[in-house]
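Much of the work behind modern protein science is quiet bookkeeping, done one molecule at a time. The protein below has been through that process, and both of its lines are reproduced in full.


***
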Amino acid sequence: MTVVPIRTLVRRPGGIRLSLERWVPALFLAPAVILLVVYLLYPLLSSFRLSLLNWNGLGETGRYVGLDNWVQLRHDPVFWQAVRNNFVLAFFSVLIQLPIALVLAVVLDEAGRGSRLLKILYFLPLLMSSVALGVVFKNVYDPNFGPLNSFLQAVGLADLAQDWLGDPHYALGAVIAVICWQNIPFYMLLFLAGLASFPRELSEAAHLDGATETTIFWRIKLPHLQGTFRTGVLLAVIGSLRYFDLIYVMTGGGPENASDLMATYMYRTVFNAFQLGYGSTVASAMFIIVTAAAALALRLSRRFQTEV
């Protein structure tokens, strides 16, 4: 009896030859492709389709209005303020989170095994629910009974006490501080993983040549972390432009839309105002902006790495 290997070509009616090997990878990839189509591609296309309708979400079908929703979005000051707030959040996320996370990662990496407890403590904010954190810090920022204002008054800095979440000048900054505090541990772990792959022989050789720790960090370790830093920038930008939960719990986008983001504005438009067509337009525009910003951030980071 002759055993036919899998590589053998199988004849189909009509004389067409197909290799079984060519279809095996496709069969393994099929479940992932189906999930992407069902949960990503189809909702995305549906969002663009709904953006052409005037629909409150309650009837069976909406009224086709063409590009009217997009024209309205173009002249919507609340939406563009939300876009500006998203980019402010992205800017400060990169400016604050990544440098602090890098410093913590370097310190913990140098500490060795003795840093295990510190790693756990630093990682705790990331394990907490964003909704729970929003409730906690909403009470922390309370102008009358919050511990922040009470502390400022106790140390003689009562003039600095503010209505942190009720004043349009401070609301966005107050929320950004909480977001950065929560997400710094994630980027710290990202940099720790990058430092773990750093060859120790290079540090030892540099020490033998008389290099200081500062020189080793700037000339050897930091260039080694360029890929990790680029990944961190990309994740920070995308995450900031898609952010929703903590800001919605703490401020709901207020006061006077001062802390509004694209996601919070979309949520209120769909579920509070019942404008499903216009909310889908906001969601579609949000997808375009996030994709363009991510592509630009990736391109700039690659150019910076090439120049360095």
